[in-house]
Amino acid sequence: MTRRFVALAVLAVVCAGVELVAGRGMSPGVVWDVVNGGGDATERHIFFQLRLPRLLVSLGAGACLAVAGLVLQSALRNPLAGPEVTGVTPGAVLGAVTATALGLAGWDSPLAVVLAACTGGCAGAALLWLLAGRGRGDPAQTAVHGVLVSAVLGGLTAMVLLVEPGELGSVVQWLVGTTEGRVWQHWHLLWPWALLWGAAAWLLAGPLTLLRCGDDIALTAGLSVRPARTLAVLCAVALTAGAVAAVGALGFVGLLVPHLAVAVFGADLRVSLPGAALVGAVVVCGADAAAQLSSRLPAPGLDSGRFTLPVGALTACLGAALLLVVVRRTPSRTF
């Protein structure tokens, strides 16, 4: 396990280094000069005020989404559970977009965005919980109801445009997910939120392990199932809301990264939860680096000064392909 953590940590450092030199406006040589204390004022501003906080936000958001997904899959005993398909992410997006459209929140007030996103995420999870009813333990039924809830919440988000069409740019950022333009204010808000709820998730590792074994075994072990599951879902919603408030909806990160983390670190959540955080950070950081490199090498005929590939678009495309592989290889997998 130690070697696996060290290997992932090294991979995270590599991805971070690639992301720092992948953006436009500065060559890798200039970035190296700035790191060594050189460069002019503009270059130092780009590196320290734009690239570095963007890197940290991508790492933090990826860790939050991965831990949230693993907590949800363990609490609901559903390998298809995740922030994207349980109403949490679309609900958080709806909350953030609505608050922004009403003038209650915005990029200049990230704390209000987090609160609005958390409220929306709780509402989305509650709606799924009500619709699933007695079949909430069935992975297939939960996934179907999750798609329905996501569609409804997505439709409500689109309706915001009818009221505030000027919010189109903001809505697109929330729906697709991007790390573009993230500054230190986003990071200063994200890291204590992620640390608080990440620690709470780790403290719930024991109850979550029992919940993975089934309600009957958990009750036999003396666990109060409903309060434990409620706390776990609340923790997952809070982590998702923090990530959504920082970068928007990054598709499939919270759904697929937990499977990879469990495959690498095993079913012991005391180990796999921090492992999932590290894997999620690597995935989002690597995807953001790839997106920036792709933006520097646009297809012929595109204006390279305007072409920008959002990291959320890349994670959605890759995640959809990986989800098909997971479903085809383990069609009847349950916890």
**Order of H and E elements:** HHHHHHHHHHHHHH
Major beta sheet summary: none
Q: What's the shape?
A: globular
Figure out the total of helices. 14
Helix fraction, binned, reads over 70%
Residues in β-strands, percent: under 5%
Describe this entry's structure for a reader.
It is globular and about 65 Å long. The two termini are 22 Å apart. The chain contains 14 helices and no strands. Helix content is 76%, strand content 0%. The chain has helices at residues 2-22, 28-35, 41-76, 88-101, 110-132, 139-163, 168-176, 184-203, 205-212, 215-220, 225-247, 253-265, 269-296, 311-329. With 335 residues, the chain is mostly helical. Helix 3 (41-76) crosses helix 12 (253-265), helix 4 (88-101) packs parallel to helix 6 and helix 8 packs antiparallel against helix 11 (225-247). It is found in: Cell membrane. InterPro entries: ABC_BtuC-like (IPR037294), ABC_transptr_permease_BtuC (IPR000522). The chain crosses the membrane at residues 55-73, 85-105, 111-131, 143-163, 190-211, 231-257, 307-327. It is a multi-pass membrane protein. Keywords: Cell membrane, Membrane, Transmembrane, Transmembrane helix, Transport.
Task: Chart the SSEs and their pairings.
Blueprint: H1 2-22, H2 28-35, H3 41-76, H4 88-101, H5 110-132, H6 139-163, H7 168-176, H8 184-203, H9 205-212, H10 215-220, H11 225-247, H12 253-265, H13 269-296, H14 311-329
Pick out its properties.
transmembrane; Iron ABC transporter permease; 335 residues; transport; 0% strand; 14 helices; membrane; mainly alpha; 76% helix; cell membrane
